[in-house]
Amino acid sequence: MTNLNGSNLSELVVMIVDDNDHMRRLLRSILEALSVAEVREATNGVTALNDSKLMIPDVIITDMMMEPLNGLEFTRMLRDDLTHPATRVPVLMITGYSEKQHVEAARDAGVTEFLAKPVTVKGVGARLNSLLTNPRPFVRTQTFTGPDRRRRQVPVEDDMRGSEAPSPTVTSLPRLTAPVPAHAETGPEIAPDPKRRALR
């Protein structure tokens, strides 16, 4: 069994939602390499919405671009359905569209984690480990439903960069007033001359 920072992936049930047969096979191979207990597949978002009602997975992995529902629409429908038993299940979105606007769109749709292609065992394992060890509270408001978008900066190993995430640093707050030079003499405060101000 693959052990990632103490998480027990051998007990997970993961659903793959992707309309690309090759990608589903690749993700299944990766999950099996991670010793995931059970892998289920859905060829599109509509099927996934129905199947996840009958057998609720622990994690859903979905592609962004699919037909007839894309990954964003699928996630939004899952989150917005108060009666759906999998509405709070963590969603990991995997896509080749890694630009900022796509990441933000996924976050706003209720996606829990985001992973850019190409995928590797190391990258998928790191995201699954993050889902297990850093669960986020579920938020339901008039404009958003999903995992809390406010999150702490938790270092997650990135398979694309290959380097460890930097440790968070603490910086001091900026001064509100200019510092007084060490050689300056302190004395009574002098009010500005209104005549001199008028000449400027």
Describe the protein's architecture and organization.
- The structure is a single chain.
- Helices cover about 30% and strands about 15% of the residues.
- It is built from 6 helices and 7 strands; from the N terminus they run βαβαβαβαβαββα.
- Helix 2 (about 45-55) runs parallel beside helix 3.
- It is globular and about 40 Å long.
Estimated share of beta-strand residues: 15-25%
Largest sheet: 5 strands, parallel
> CATH superfamily of the domain at 10-147, called what?
Response regulator
Order of helices and strands: EHEHEHEHEHEEH
CATH architectural arrangement of the domain at 10-147 = 3-Layer(aba) Sandwich
Describe the global form: globular
Tell me the structural class: alpha/beta
The residue-averaged pLDDT reads 79
Strands, total number: 7
What is the CATH top level name of the domain at 10-147?
Alpha Beta
**CATH topology description of the domain at 10-147:** Rossmann fold
What integer value in Å does the Rg equal?
25 Å
Number of helices, counting only DSSP H or I runs of 4 residues or more: 6
Instruction: Summarize the amount of helix as a percent range.
Output: 25-40%
Unreliable stretches covering 5 or more consecutive residues: 1-6, 153-180
Distance N to C terminus: 77 Å
Strands side by side in the biggest sheet: 2-1-3-4-5
